[in-house]
């Protein structure tokens, strides 16, 4: 393509909310064979909310939620925010009292924690009252030798089959409860996947979440090629494995954990509302944060480059 054609196309893109970083990225766009979508925050709204909190110990619900929320308070993960938001409702009157007393501090009911650590792709760990608390997935429980009864496992499976993420909680090495978290699909997601297929492009979903939830979400949106339980560095491996046959691969993502994949892709597309690190790693930025613009961008690339031949 001529420099003029590229300049015009980049301008049309910008006017439509698609920032394209350079002519090479624009040219690669027309040959895309695969588009890999991150699940959380890309295909889904990333506005997770707790739908179930089940206690599997003698603890009462309020006590359980206070422990879990305290453990998650230092995490930036969307799941952590959902848990805090949910627990907050159980402390409405505490927050109100604090306000009346002039403290004006919400979340004053959170417990003190020590030795907090976030374990990417697994969950969080810290100590409360000198006892270890773990909040996360099965892998986190397995690595800490927390036994999960068949009863609890069945409950988690049930959540996952209905597209929810099951979060397990262990305190002092006992499994004390499970949270079910739902994150709805973006409204345009299914239509965009269908559109890509019509353009002869293969959609793929990649996620750090578990297989059962991943499959349920993929089915809802119309994707059959799913890669689940993938650690952040593994997202780049998925990109490279699809590139092996010489195919041009795009990846769409929003999170810090997507940046290795976005950098490895021939065309990395970042959701505009995503993290700065994802935006930096990408070739295209979808400023309106709508998945429709994945199609806008590819269509623009195809049209510009064919018109000037
Ligand atoms: P994705 O690739 O879908 O964005 P992540 O890699 O961020 O997912 O997380 C993968 C899984 O790790 C989550 O589904 C959850 O089970 C667990 N996890 C990660 N962070 C947390 C957290 N702060 N609290 C609980 N679970 C977490
Ligand atoms: Mg994400």
UniProtKB/TrEMBL annotation:
Q: Which GO terms describe its biological process?
A: copper ion transport; plant-type hypersensitive response
One cellular component (GO) term of this entry: membrane
Q: Give the record's family classification.
A: Belongs to the cation transport ATPase (P-type) (TC 3.A.3) family. Type IB subfamily.
Q: Which controlled-vocabulary keywords does the entry list?
A: ATP-binding, Copper, Copper transport, Ion transport, Membrane, Metal-binding, Nucleotide-binding, Repeat, Translocase, Transmembrane, Transmembrane helix, Transport
Its annotated compartments are: Membrane
> What is the protein name stated in its UniProt record?
Copper-exporting ATPase / responsive-to-antagonist 1 / copper-transporting ATPase
Organism whose genome encodes this protein = Perilla frutescens var. hirtella (Perilla citriodora)
GO MF term set: ATP binding; ATP hydrolysis activity; ATPase-coupled monoatomic cation transmembrane transporter activity; copper ion binding
Q: What is its main location?
A: membrane
Its signal peptide is none
């Amino acid at each position: 393509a001529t420099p003029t054609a590229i300049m015009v196309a980049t301008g049309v893109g910008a006017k439509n909310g698609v920032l394209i970083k350079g002519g090479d990225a624009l040219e690669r766009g027309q040959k895309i064979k695969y588009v890999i979508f991150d699940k959380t925050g890309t295909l889904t709204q990333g506005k997770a909310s707790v739908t179930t909190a089940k206690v599997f110990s003698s603890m009462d619900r309020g006590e359980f939620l206070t422990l879990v929320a305290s453990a998650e308070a230092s995490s930036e993960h969307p799941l952590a925010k959902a848990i805090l938001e949910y627990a907050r409702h159980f402390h409405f009157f505490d927050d109100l009292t604090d306000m009346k007393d002039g403290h004006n501090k919400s979340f004053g009911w959170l417990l003190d924690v020590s030795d907090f650590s976030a374990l990417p792709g697994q969950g969080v760990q810290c100590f409360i009252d000198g006892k270890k608390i773990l909040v996360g997935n099965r892998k986190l429980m397995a690595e800490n030798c927390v036994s999960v009864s068949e009863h609890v496992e069945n409950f988690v499976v049930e959540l996952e089959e209905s597209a929810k993420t099951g979060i397990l909680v262990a305190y002092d090495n006992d499994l004390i409860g499970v949270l079910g978290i739902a994150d709805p699909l973006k409204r345009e997601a299914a239509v965009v996947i269908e559109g890509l297929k019509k353009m002869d492009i293969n959609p793929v979903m990649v996620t750090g979440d578990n297989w059962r939830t991943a499959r349920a979400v993929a089915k809802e949106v119309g994707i059959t090629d799913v890669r689940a339980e993938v650690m952040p560095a593994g997202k780049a491996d998925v990109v490279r494995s699809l590139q092996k046959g010489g195919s041009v691969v795009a990846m769409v993502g929003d999170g810090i954990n997507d940046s290795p994949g976005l950098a490895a892709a021939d065309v990395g597309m970042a959701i505009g509302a995503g993290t700065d690190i994802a935006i930096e790693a990408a070739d295209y930025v979808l400023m309106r944060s709508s998945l429709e613009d994945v199609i806008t961008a590819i269509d623009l690339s195809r049209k510009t480059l064919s018109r000037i031949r």
